[in-house]
Every structure is written in structure tokens, then in C-alpha cells.
Specification:
Number of helices: 2
Shape: elongated
Helix content: 55-70%
Low-confidence stretches: none
Oligomer: single chain
Largest sheet: none
Radius of gyration: 26 Å
Order of helices and strands: HH
Number of domains: 2
Mean pLDDT: 79
Number of strands: 0
Distance between the termini: 78 Å
Strand content: under 5%
Length: about 90
């Protein structure tokens, strides 16, 4: 008798998990797609100078992720030396 109750509860739990997955996966996918299109739209509106083509080439854009560069440990100097090296090339 206990096995039958256990199997019934297990089936209910599995059914609930499947139902959640059936709803959650498409909603998450749509949310990420909308976020992707929103970011692309914002970039095209706020950064039109990056869309310009000069001499058949788009401008080169370089970004730095340098955590703790303002902590006073010399990281800021390393960051600016890297920027200077890119500018001289």
C-alpha cells in the first residue's frame, strides 16, 4: 500500500516538473530573445557612430574589463599602459 502511494506522489511530482519545464523553457527563451533585440536596438540608436563605414571598413572598437583598477594597487597604471600600447600600434 505504501508503494502505491509513493508511486502516485512520485508521478504527481514528475508531472509538475514536466509542466513547469514546458512553460519555463519557452518563456525564458522568449525573454532572452527580447533582451537581445532590445540591446541591439539601443546600441543602434545610442551608438550610431559605430555603424558608420569608412573606406569600406567599420571602426575598430576595443573594450577593457579591468576590475579593481582604481583600488590603488597599481592596476590603474597597468590599464593605462595597455591603452597607450594599443594607441601606439
Amino acid at each position: 500500500m505504501y508503494v502505491c502511494v509513493f508511486v502516485r506522489v512520485l508521478c504527481q511530482q514528475v508531472t509538475a516538473v514536466i509542466a513547469i519545464c514546458i512553460v519555463w523553457i519557452p518563456v525564458t527563451y522568449l525573454a532572452f530573445r527580447l533582451l537581445f533585440f532590445w540591446i541591439r536596438h539601443r546600441a543602434s540608436v545610442q551608438l550610431p557612430h559605430l555603424r558608420k563605414v569608412v573606406n569600406g571598413q567599420k571602426p575598430l572598437v576595443i573594450g577593457f574589463f579591468h576590475p579593481y583598477c582604481n583600488a590603488g594597487g597599481g592596476g590603474e597604471r597597468v590599464l593605462w599602459i595597455a591603452v597607450q600600447a594599443l594607441q601606439t600600434r
